[in-house]
Amino acid sequence: MSRTRRGSRGPGYEYWSRRPCSGWNPGRETKMISHQIERAREKATLHDEIKEMEDEDDDNESGY
C-alpha cells in the first residue's frame, strides 16, 4: 500500500480491522484457523439477522 507522506504510518499499522489470530505466527495453520473463526462469526451474525427478520414478520402478522 502506497503512502503519500514519508513516515505517515508506522510499520505494522493495520489499515483494516484486525482479523482473528492476527498476532500468531504466519502460516497455513493460522490462516486456516482464522478463516474458520471468520466463517463461524458470519454464520452467527446471519442467523441473528434472520431471526430478527422473522420476529418482525411475526409482529406484523399479529397486528391485524
Arithmetic mean pLDDT: 79
**Low-pLDDT segments, ≥5 res:** none
What is the terminal-to-terminal distance?
Answer: 56 Å
The topology string of helices and strands comes to H
Structural class: mainly alpha
Q: Given the structure, what is the number of helices?
A: 1
Give a count of the beta strands, DSSP E runs of length 2 or more: 0
Radius of gyration: 20 Å
Task: Using the alpha-carbon principal axes, give the shape.
Answer: elongated
Percent helix, as a range, is 40-55%
**Which strand-content bin applies to the residues?**
under 5%
Largest sheet: none
Question: Concise description?
Answer:
This protein is an all-alpha fold and 64 residues long.
Structural features, described:
55% of the residues lie in helices and 0% in strands. With 64 residues, the protein is mainly α. The longest helix is centred in the last third of the chain and has 35 residues, at 28-62. It is elongated and about 60 Å long. The mean pLDDT is 79.
